[in-house]
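Hi everyone,

Forwarding the result from last night's run.
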Amino acid sequence: MIYTVTSTLPLTHGGRTKSLLKRVKFLDKEMNIRNKILTTNYNVNYETVCEKFLNSQFITENTEFENIYDWLSGFKLFQIPKTKFRKKTIYHEVNKEIPGLKCKEKDNVLRYYDGDTYVLYRKFYEDSNILKFEDVMSPISKRKIERREYNSYGILHRKSYFSRKTYNRILEEYFDIKGNIYCKKFYNSQIKDQVDFVQILKDNIYLKSFKTNKDLFKYYFENRFKNEDIVFCDARLLDEPLLNQAKKTKNILVFHSNHLKNEITRPSYEFALNNSHKIAQYILLTQKQKEDIQKSYNIGNDKITVIPHFIEAYPKIDNTEKLNRFIFIGRLAPEKQIDHIIEAYKLFLSYGHDTKLEIYGADERDQKNHLLDLIDKYGIKNYVQIHEFTENPLNEFRKSKASLLTSKNEGFGLTIMESIEVGCPVISYDVCYGPSEIIQHGSNGYLVEKDNIEEFAKYMDKIINRPLKKLKLKQHSNKKAQNKIIKNYFRK
């Protein structure tokens, strides 16, 4: 059996998830090798995510999914509630009014008051009377002391309890569709989200305990894998439980990111690189990363395979109107250094240009507000727009003068390839790994010294004054070349 393990499969996803799904689909369609994907995060609506992946053709009908929490529940977490005879879907709706309490409603959110005392916060699924979650509020602190979460059918699936002193989480209870508790997580009240221990239950009766989530993952893997199973691991969080589990599996670790930070191995990569004897193969995206790893670790060529990303050949659309704008598409995360883009853009405007800047991406760690404050500070809000994540990045690239990338580091830079493929040149910091392997300086984009904002602005000016035309990707980036590499590897 062949498995792929990953921590999460978000519906709105970046390069790692996109690459994982591409690999799984390729192995199925091109080589008749089928994967079962195991996830370890908690998402009670995973079935919806998988359905959308299938409808969007990110995966095939042959792809199987399994989540640790569904397994722990005895596969009673994702079941759809049905009537006994007609098998109609049951939705549990609630009355938004609560006798004896005053209510204030705004955008599917309701706040309830007992006189002047704030006692309950409720959020509903959009355009419905189905609860998404409700918070019981302390009448003294006005902070939540209990949260109850419901799935899209209105069934309770998790309760969280919070300390009245620190307001940190102290206990989580997980429920199956029948209302049975199958898992409990106890937390340190003094340290936010630090797990003290985990209990699993069957029929509400104690079964087993674990000190950490990783110990729980290890137990899961030992119960799902057999000797000689092939396991691809795409998440560094899961390296330790995978490599320490008792079954003799063939472990293949896929690196999607830079393993270094300031020339030192990141803690999340140390276990993987220090335990090469437990690993059948490392799959990397660039030759340069392979060389850097081998400088520091005694890992032979036989254990490292370089398989760069590839993309499909997209049809050229010559009549697409180019908007007078730059674009960024990616996560709004600190490591992407989007504030550098805004700094460079401010300088670019001082050259007398009126080209707009549009930013697309899901917010992480309140970066959006940080960027909005910066835009406001520089007085450029008439020129810059921040949008939610786009499901059609190729179309947005196609309409833009150039895409911009100022990351601290990259694993490869799949968006760079997508941008160039549809005729949108890229200006990027020359960081490890990826940009220099895709961008041909002065031909399909420009490489800029890392953190050199002034130089970045100058290339933005240059690309407007002298647009790059007839963009091409390097030969190794096409699908045909990659197919050959991948097929040769899996036929070993």
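Residues 339 and 447 are 18 Å apart (CA to CA).

Cheers,
N.
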